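Reviewers of the previous submission asked for a worked example of the structure-prediction workflow described in the proposal, so we include one complete record here. The input consisted solely of the amino acid sequence. No template or homolog information was supplied to the procedure at any stage.
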Amino acid sequence: MTISIVYHSVYGHTAKLAQAVAKGAQINEDTTVHLISVDDTQIKWDLLEKSDAIIFGSPTYNGTISSGLKKFFEDSTKAAWLEFKWRNKIAAGFTNSGAFSGDKLNSLITIALFAAQHGMIWTGLDLHPANEKNNVPTKNLNRLGSWLGSMAQSDDDSPEVTPGKDDLDTAQYLGKRVAEITKQFIR
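From that input alone, the workflow returned the following structure tokens.
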């Protein structure tokens, strides 16, 4: 099984989340995970076409995805869209912003809509919002209460410090969930 994580990261926070998603997606030795920055000069289109799942990540700026991911979506994927080369691939998304809300939901909706236009199958989080009082192992996950994908808050600090552990663990959980769902589809 092959999972690709396509992301844009300006300051390193989204790259840190992408690495957490990749760690979760690596559920067994038969899973190959590729991290693909949209800033790479050579996007491996054949790799994306062969991937069983593609997870998209972006920082949220001014309530939407970054210009880097938007450019990738609008300018680079037309050939994949015209021939529905990504049809029936599993898709998911993650985002972060400096603010607690930061209108991250709009970024995830934008990514989900993009995936839908490519005929992809969206995978969200199957987690209740974090609650310290819950007596379940996932009680600290989904701190920001998202159902559509993984959200993180990256304070105005370096990626070595933020996003925090709970947000990184949620991103890792998303990667694991996508891998588990993908495995069901490719049997």
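Strands lie at 2-7, 32-37, 53-61, 64-65, 90-97, 121-122, 150-153. We consider this example representative of the routine output the project will generate in years two and three.
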